[in-house]
Write a structure and sequence with these properties.
The chain is α+β, with helices and mostly antiparallel strands. 27% of the residues lie in helices and 16% in strands.
């Protein structure tokens, strides 16, 4: 039922009078939809008849909703909320002595919220969620089969054991790595943007968890890292340095006789973007529905808590920084174009971490962001994800 949600302030009425002078309409729509799961669009006959709206306003609104994963319901009101034929109804129902359009902003929004809440409740209770927004069924998990014979984006495990990770097959392809020159959010080390060709490989569906890493520690008689009191289990392992991540990969490769390793930096960004070119794989604007960042939760979340990217990879932005194979270079000038690790011309004791973390800002959780870290120094915001050659 939506009525209690309206009373708790979880339903908001938005109109373009909130847009400040000089702001871009499309960007404001993106921001307004960023916190929504469902939006109800109240339309009038004037709205539907307007060529300007159909050409200039409706397309960016629908695209923004699609980018943000927001379901839109349409309600036809017959006439505009601000037309005189409707104002009398509001005056009678709410004892308003002035036309709705002349009310102070806060009072106008309160009136609209009351008038629209029943319509919104009826829409949410009776409408069917479109197919793309229904909870997806769990994809098939292939265990103990040769992944080279599986289709792209298939999920597999080499060994039916809880310490063996689920992997996603990443298709071969090419993409533009890094950030374009005109991106104001980009750091110098994300440039120049350059095309990279990637061969088919597999990457961890999830970050390596405490459950998996603790088994490795027991098997190799090494000290287990701290969980900061947040819990172990399916939370991503933290307080692991690059050397720890490398050792886990070597142990897993020896135990399974399969070629596990850390992803190269180019592979990581390719898998993160999943065919997208936006700042985040889901949009150009941050959205806490998709990732754990900006201290929204102040600690890590269990893997799989948020929705995956388009290729079925979870938590690849936010939650914890991820160790990759490459040493750090301060730009992409001279970087290889074949997706391999860039080992030449750098200090091998300092490696790259990618993806941001639970405490970093949205700007530092973009698909192109990269950071430098010393190999032997663990950090509570650092974990890792596996890769596997095919």
């Amino acid at each position: 039922m939506l009525a209690p949600a309206v009373q708790r302030g979880l339903v908001d009425v938005w109109d373009d009078q909130r847009i400040l002078p000089g702001a871009k309409w499309e960007q404001e729509i993106q921001k307004a939809l960023a916190s929504a799961r469902i939006a109800v669009l109240l339309v009038s006959k004037n709205f539907l008849a307007s060529h300007f709206i159909a050409k200039n306003e409706l397309p960016p609104l629908l695209k923004a909703a699609q980018d943000q994963g927001v379901t839109i319901f349409w309600i036809y009101l017959g006439s505009c909320l601000y037309e005189q034929t409707e104002i009398a109804t509001y005056q009678a129902a709410h004892d308003i002595s002035r036309p709705l359009s002349e009310l102070p902003k806060a009072q106008r929004e309160a009136v609209l919220s009351k008038c629209c809440s029943k319509l919104i409740q009826m829409a949410v209770e009776t409408a069917q969620i479109p197919e793309p927004f229904r909870p997806p069924s769990r994809p098939s998990l292939h265990v103990g089969v040769d992944p080279r014979n599986l289709p792209d984006r298939s999920i597999f495990k080499d060994v039916d054991e809880p310490w063996c990770p689920e992997m996603v097959i990443i298709p071969a392809g090419s993409y533009l790595m890094g950030s374009p020159t005109e991106d104001d959010d980009a750091y110098p080390e994300e440039k120049p943007q350059h095309r990279v060709n990637i061969t088919r490989f597999a990457i961890g569906r999830y970050l390596v968890t405490f459950d998996e890493f603790d088994y490795f520690c027991d098997a190799t008689k090494r000290r287990k890292p701290s969980d900061e009191g947040w819990g172990r289990g399916r939370r991503p392992v933290i307080w692991v340095c690059w050397n720890d991540a490398r050792d886990f990969c070597l142990w897993l490769a020896n135990t399974t006789a399969r070629p596990y390793r850390l992803p190269t930096e180019a592979e990581w960004e390719y898998a993160c973007r999943a065919g997208t070119e936006t700042k985040f794989y889901y949009a150009n604007y941050p959205n806490v529905k998709h990732a754990n960042f900006d201290n929204a939760r102040k600690l890590t979340t269990e893997v799989g808590h948020y929705t995956s990217n388009p290729w079925g990879i979870f938590d690849i932005l936010g939650n914890v920084w991820e160790h990759v194979e490459d040493p750090y270079h301060d730009s992409y000038q001279g970087a290889p174009d074949d997706g391999s690790a860039w080992l030449d011309g750098a200090d091998l004791s300092h490696r790259v971490v990618r993806g941001g973390s639970y405490s970093y800002s949205a700007k530092d959780c973009r698909s192109a962001v990269r950071c430098e870290h010393e190999c032997g120094r663990p950090d509570r915001q650092h974990g890792f994800r596996l890769a596997r050659s095919l």
